[in-house]
Amino acid sequence: MFRVNSRIRKPVCNSRLTITDVLPIMLLGNTEYAVRPDRPVPQQGEYMIYADNAATTKMSREAVQAMLPYLEEYYGNPSSLYAFGQKAKEDLEAARQKIASCLGADPREIIFTSGGSEADNQAILSAAHSGAKKGKKHIISTAMEHHAVLHTLDKLKKQGFDVTLLDVHANGIVSAEEVRDAIREDTCLVTVMYANNEIGTIQPVAEIGAVCREKGVLFHTDAVQAAGHLPIDVKAQNIDMLSLSAHKFHGPKGIGVLFVRRGVPLETLISGGAQERGKRAGTENIASIVGMAKALEIACSNMEKNAERMTAMRDRLIAGLDRIPYGELNGDRTRRLPGNVNFCFEGIEGESLLLLLDDKGICASSGSACTSGSLDPSHVLLAIGRPHEVAHGSLRLSIGEDVTEEEIDYMIAAVTDVVTYLRNMSPFWRDLVNGKRKHVFSE
Ligand SMILES: Cc1ncc(COP(=O)(O)O)c(C=O)c1O
């Protein structure tokens, strides 16, 4: 959580937003109204609860400190032969070693990328193209992957690949048996995310990996939301390729990793120099790589302690929001990320909910940050079977490691207050109350 100072504003609905601000969004779902250039950024003396850690996290002081020497002092190019450049090269390799050991990998299996999207693209395109050379053009994934995966699969479909998107159950989880049943003679890749960015559900990656290894099919997992929060051991979990992104675990933005098991062929996405053993061209972003290694090291050493505390806080928040009538938790109650809470509320338009929560000093999201400019309901919520009208009324609160009980209780009170306020002025809600429409959830 980010505190400008520790004074909590009282959770009353004396919002600075008026009905004219919110009504167009409720009626039209028009996100143009959601982007208000005049919206003030919290200033000194104001309080803000940052509950959007799935979108991005605050960098840790240690990661910032680790980066500074490479911005100010050791700015040499790791490809240069003189000692000043070689210092950068040595530190780059030390960072690679640290990251590899956090994943149970060999340093030669770590490729630095610009983030999770690039890592996903490279892993999937590479596995698909090398499969195609052997006449294998079938790929298995799920309907609730991140768009970095789904849009890459769309591209491959246009190139003649056959893609099976497995249905996820109402709890947002696929089983290894379902993956096994979908594998065919011509399957070249299974790509299933470790943890979902919207509803936080955790997939049985070790079991899926075991099935893929047994069947001789490559297994990639998008671990962008999992890295630093859930244990990763690429060998024990039979993972062939894995993507992660530093800004999800208090590292810098614009840097990530693609793990590729030794022996798995890897195609280059960005051509040019011979950096990253010819697999990813471009002068290495040494400061960010060092910052990422530091952040991952800290996240991994504190993982158990953080998970225990955050799970307790998450469950307190879920219990509080469960008391709001005609709302329901999205995703499995326990097999979910320690910091993820995601609810649907009937009779609510997500964008108005977010604006009013912002007004109460709470940074939240209604889905993934990447889709929050789109009018479509979340593909993840549709995949778990939520009807359109409730999928539009979703709220994701992704809490941080240092969230307090007081902040959780404030969020419960604020969400309860705002949901009631919005329902009271919603014609859609009136129809539900008058029995003109049917409820989706129970009271
Ligand atoms: C599951 C998942 N995959 C991929 C990405 C993309 O990562 P990046 O922002 O580093 O490109 C994200 C980012 O939100 C994500 O949550």
What Rg is obtained from the alpha carbons, in whole angstroms?
Answer: 23 Å
The counted number of beta strands is: 12
- Spatial order of the strands forming the largest sheet: 2-8-7-6-5-3-4
Percent strand equals 5-15%
- For the termini, the CA-CA separation is 32 Å
Order of helices and strands: HEHHEHEHEHEHEEEHHEEHEHHEHH
State the major sheet.
Answer: 7 strands, mixed
What is the overall silhouette? globular
Low-pLDDT residue intervals, each spanning 5 or more residues: 1-15, 22-37
What is the helix content?
25-40%
Structural class: alpha/beta
Number of DSSP helices? 14
- Average pLDDT confidence is 91
Q: Tell me which ligands are bound.
A: pyridoxal-5'-phosphate
